Amino acid sequence: MSKEKMKAYWKENLKYLAILLSVWFLVSYVFGIFLVEQLNTIKFAGFKLGFWFAQQGSMYVFVILIVVYVKLMNKLDKKYGVDE
Amino acid sequence: MGILTWTWILVGITFTLYIGIAIWARAGTSKEFYVAGGGVPPILNGMATAADWMSAASFISLAGIVSFTGYDGAVYLMGWTGGYVLLALLLAPYLRKFGKFTVPDFIGDRYYSNTARVVAVIAALIVSFTYVAGQMRGVGIVFSRYLEVDIDTGVYIGMAIVLFYAVLGGMKGITYTQVAQYCVLIFAFMVPAIFISFQMTGNPIPQLGFGSAGEDGIYLLDKLDGLQRELGFTEYTSGSKSMIDVFAITFALMVGTAGLPHVIVRFFTVPKVKDARVSAGWALFFIAILYTTVPAVAVFARTNLIETVSNKNYSELPQWVSNWEKTGLLKYEDKNEDGIVQYVADKSVNELTIDRDIMVLANPEIANLPNWVVALVGAGGLAAALSTAAGLLLVIASSISHDLIKKIINPKITEKSELWAARLSAAVAVVVAGYFGIHPPGFVAAVVALAFGLAAASFFPAIILGIFDKRMNKEGAITGMIIGLSLMVWYMLKFKFGIFDGGKGAVAGLKADWWFNFGAGGISPEGFGTIAMLANFVVSVIVSRFTPAPPQEVQDIVEHIRIPSGAGEASSH
C-alpha cells in the first residue's frame, strides 16, 4: 500500500472515530450527567429523561455505536483494499 | 424441594459442565494456553469476554449499589459499559493486528524497552491481584449462604475448581468454560428479574417494566421517589454526589475498563482484526443485557424492601428477614422499643441496617419466587465469580511465564518448559488469591474499585499514545506511566486510607480537601484515575517532544498496526 493511500485511510478512520466518540460523550456525559436536571423535567412513560439516559439510554447507544463502527470500518477496509 | 437441595443440584450440574469443557478444551501449546490458539469465533469470544468482565461484583453487588444510591449508581452502569466503546474503537483492532500475547508484550515492544515491559508487568500484577482476591471472597460468600458451609470451605472449593480448569486448559479452557458460565449467569439473573417485573408491573421486560405503573396506576419511579422522600432519603431519581465527581468516576471507570489487561487480552484470541471489532460489539451486547436489567432490578428491590419492612410489626416480617439476620448482613435494633420497624434516613432513629450486597441474592425471596429460582441465583453468582477469577489468573500466569521468564529472564526457554512455567504460575496465583480470599486484608474491597483508577492511570495512555502518536518514545511513555501510577497511589493512600494524616479515622475529615473542589465537593479517590490519566498523557507528550524520536523500525510497527490486513496469527516473535 502506498504512503498516500495509507495516510488517506488513516485520516478517514480518525474522522469516524471523532464522530462516533462525540456521540459517545454526548449521550453519557452531556445527557446523563451535565444536563441531567434539565432533561429530568421532560418525562416519557414513567421515566425522567435525564435519569433514563444515565441508567438506560446511554448503554443502548453504546451498543449501537460499536455496530455502526464495525459497518463503517468494513466498508472503509474494502474501499482501500485492506480487508481480509 | 428446598432451596438447599435445589442449590446442590444446580451447582453440581454446572460445575460438572465446567470441568467437562475444561477437559475437552485443554491446551497443548503455549499459544493455546495464552490466546486459545487465536481461533475463537467472535461471537463466542464476545460471550467469554462478557463472563470474564462481569464479576461477582456485577452480579451480586451492582444492583444493590444502584438500589441504595439511585441516580448516582449510573456511574457504574455507564462506566462499566462505556469503556467497551473505547476498547472497540481505540484499542482492540490495533492490538489484535500487533499480534502478541499480553499487554506488557505490546508496551515492551512498542517502547523498545525492557524497563517499560517491567513497569507494565508490575502494573498488570497489582491490578489483577487486587481484583482476583475480591472474586475468591465472592465465591466464599455465595457458598456459605447457599450451601451452608463456612466461607473458608467455600473458598477452598472455588480454588480447586479454578485451579483445575485454568491450569489444565489455559486460555482455551477458560474461554469455553466462560461461554458456558455466561449462559448460566445471564439465565440466573434474568429469570428472577422477569418474574418480578411481571409481578409488579405486568410487563415481563424489566427494562420497560420499571418505567411502567403498578396495579395502583402510579408510575413505579414516582412511587419510589415519594417513599424515599417520606423516609427522609434523597429522591431515587436524583443523586447526592457532586457533578464533577460523578463525571470523574464515570470517566475513570470507562478508561480503566479499556485498560484492564484481562479484558484486553481477550481480543488477542480472535483470528482477524475485523473479528476483534465485531467481538467487542458482541461483548458489549451480552454485557448490556445484564447491565440494562440492573437498574430495573434495583428499583423493584428497593420498592419491595421499603413496602415490606417500613413501619411493619417486627414479629410479622417474612421468613427471609430472619434468614438474612442469621448471616449478620441484616440487623434490626428496636431503638424506641415499639416493636415496629423504623427504616429512615436519620441514623439516630433508623432501626434497620441492610448490607446492600444482599439485595440481588435476597430479591427472589423478597418477591416470593419458587425455590429453584432462588437456587439459580446462587449458581449464577458462582459462575460470575469463577469466570472472572479464571481470566485474571491467566493474566497473572502469563505475566510471569511469558513477560518475565520468556522475555526477560530466560529467552531461550523451550516451548514445553514455558507451558509448564505458565501452569505453575497459574497454580501459585490460585493459592495466593485463595489466601487473600480467606484472610481478606481490610483494604481489598476498597481497592477493587481503585484497580480501575490504577489501570486508567498507567496502561490506557501508554497504549493509546503507542497507537495514535507515532512520535511517542520510551522516555515519554515510561515517565508518564510512573507519574500517573504514583499520583494515583498517593491520592489513594492520602484520601482513602488516611496514611499521611493518622490512618483510617482521618479519612472522613479529609473529604473537604479533595482536589478540584469548586464549592460543591471535589473528586473522590475512585474518580481520581481520570486526573492521574490526564497527568500521564500530558507528561508523556511533553517528555517525548524533548527526547529522541523512536527508531525507524518502531515507527514502522505503528504504521503496520494501523492497517488491518495481514494480521496473521498471534505469535511470540
The CATH architecture of the largest domain in chain B would be Up-down Bundle
Q: Provide the CATH topology of the largest domain in chain B.
A: Sodium/glucose cotransporter
Q: How many helix segments of chain A?
A: 3
pLDDT averaged over residues of chain A: 94
The main sheet of chain A comes to:
2 strands, antiparallel
Strand content of chain B: under 5%
Instruction: Bin the helical content of chain B.
Output: 55-70%
In short:
The complex is a heterodimer of chains A (84) and B (573). Chain A has 84 residues and is mostly helical.
Helices and strands in order:
The complex is a heterodimer of chains A (84) and B (573).
Chain A: H1 3-34, H2 36-39, E1 43-44, E2 47-48, H3 49-79
Antiparallel strand pairs in A: 1-2
Helix pairs in contact in A: 1-3
Chain B: H1 3-24, H2 30-35, H3 42-53, H4 56-69, H5 74-98, H6 103-110, H7 114-146, H8 151-201, H9 206-209, H10 220-230, H11 243-259, H12 261-264, H13 273-309, H14 319-327, E1 330-332, E2 352-354, H15 358-366, H16 371-409, H17 415-438, H18 444-468, H19 474-495, H20 528-545, H21 552-562
Antiparallel strand pairs in B: 1-2
Helix pairs in contact in B: 1-8, 1-16, 3-8, 3-13, 3-16, 4-13, 4-15, 4-16, 5-11, 5-13, 5-21, 6-7, 7-8, 7-16, 7-17, 7-18, 7-19, 8-13, 8-16, 8-17, 10-13, 11-18, 11-20, 13-15, 15-16, 16-17, 18-19, 18-20, 19-20
Question: Can you offer a commentary on this structure?
Answer:
The complex is a heterodimer of chains A (84) and B (573). Chain A has helices spanning 3-34, 36-39, 49-79; strands at 43-44, 47-48. Chain A is mainly alpha-helical. In chain A, a hairpin with a 2-residue loop joins β1 and β2 (47-48). The two termini of chain A are 14 Å apart. Chain B is globular and about 80 Å long. Chain B folds into two domains: 3-314 and 358-562, Up-down Bundle (Sodium/glucose cotransporter), CATH 1.20.1730.10; 315-354, no CATH class. Chain B has a two-stranded antiparallel ribbon with strand order 1-2. Helices cover 70% and strands 1% of the residues of chain B. At the A-B interface, α1, β2 and α3 of A face α5, α10, α11 and α13 of B.
